[in-house]
UniProtKB/TrEMBL annotation:
Record's compositionally biased regions (Basic and acidic residues): 25-46
GO biological process: negative regulation of signal transduction; regulation of translation
SMART domains: RGS
Name used for this protein in its record: Regulator of G-protein signaling 2
Annotated function: Regulates G protein-coupled receptor signaling cascades. Inhibits signal transduction by increasing the GTPase activity of G protein alpha subunits, thereby driving them into their inactive GDP-bound form. It is involved in the negative regulation of the angiotensin-activated signaling pathway. Plays a role in the regulation of blood pressure in response to signaling via G protein-coupled receptors and GNAQ. Plays a role in regulating the constriction and relaxation of vascular smooth muscle. Binds EIF2B5 and blocks its activity, thereby inhibiting the translation of mRNA into protein.
Keyword Phosphoprotein assigned: yes
Length: 228
């Protein structure tokens, strides 16, 4: 019995000695503390890579939208009409978009940027519906008004529409009845709902996005050497 106690004591001493050796500190699950630091570094690098990818994707989408807008303006413009080209806004202009949602929508570049942002969040149907409603309200011909009303309904309102927006059942039913004799106010309730949804949810996220922050940054001042 005395020998057994001696053996137990020797084993306990050996275990304690092993725990005190450098590099022997292990966390739960058999992982070293240094491994955790490596994982954190990898996670930071991965997040940085994802952010860069998102910004690059937004820039690509934005260029695409601006190019399409410019091309459509050229095709629709009459002979001798001025052609509009959209340039990157100054940081001061971009900062104005944060003052009100309407300021953002009133800017051609701002609208394209916001649309690209919504596309990255897979909810671009909201801005597309809002734009379709704005175009609808400008329509003067009764025949065109009816055909456009049916198209908007088929694209955005009916169940399982390709770009179905998130509105309540009662509003959908009301629209279905109103488009039978289309008026300019057919989609007013739904448009207000979608506008509020964008203003209160997507718009604040856009203002906090990396892409918007980059637009608001002032370019670094470069010194130009004077000719002697």
């Amino acid at each position: 019995q005395q020998r057994r106690q001696q053996r137990r004591g020797a084993m306990q001493s050996a275990v304690l000695l092993a725990l005190q050796l450098p590099g022997a500190h292990m966390e739960r699950g058999g992982r070293r503390r240094g491994d955790n630091d490596d994982d954190k570094d990898k996670e930071k690098k991965e997040k940085g890579r994802v952010k860069r990818t998102i910004i690059k994707d937004w820039k690509t989408r934005l260029s695409y939208f601006l190019q399409n807008s410019s091309n459509s303006a050229k095709m629709k413009g009459k002979k001798g009409a001025k052609q509009h080209t959209y340039f990157r806004p100054s940081p001061e202009e971009a900062q104005l978009w944060s003052e009100a949602f309407d300021e953002l929508l009133a800017s051609k570049y701002g609208l394209a940027a916001f649309r690209a942002f919504l596309k990255s969040e897979y909810c671009e149907e909201n801005i597309e519906f809002w734009l379709a409603c704005e175009d609808f309200k400008k329509t003067k011909s009764p025949q065109k008004l009816t055909s456009k009303a049916k198209k908007i309904y088929n694209d955005f309102i009916e169940k399982e529409a390709p770009k179905e927006i998130n509105i309540d059942f009662q509003t959908k039913n009301m629209i279905a009845q109103n488009i039978q004799e289309a008026t300019h106010s057919c989609f007013s309730a739904a448009q207000k709902r979608v506008y509020s949804l964008m203003e209160n949810n997507s718009y604040p996220r856009f203002l906090e996005s990396e892409f918007y922050e980059e637009l608001c940054k002032k370019p670094p001042i470069t010194r130009v050497a004077q000719a002697t």
